[in-house]
Amino acid sequence: MIAPLGPRPSATDVLGDHRVVPVVVLDDPRKADALGAALVEGGLPVAEATFRTPEAAAVLRRLAARHDLVVGAGTVLTARQVDEALDAGARFVVSPGLSAVVVRRCQEANVPVIPGISTPSEIMQALDLGLDTVKFFPAEANGGLPTIKALAAAFPQVRFMPTGGITVESAPAYLAHPSVAAVGGSWMVAADLLAAGRWDEVAARCAATSALSAPRREGAPA
Question: Apex CA 77: angle with CA 22 and CA 141, to 5°?
Answer without folding.
Answer: 55
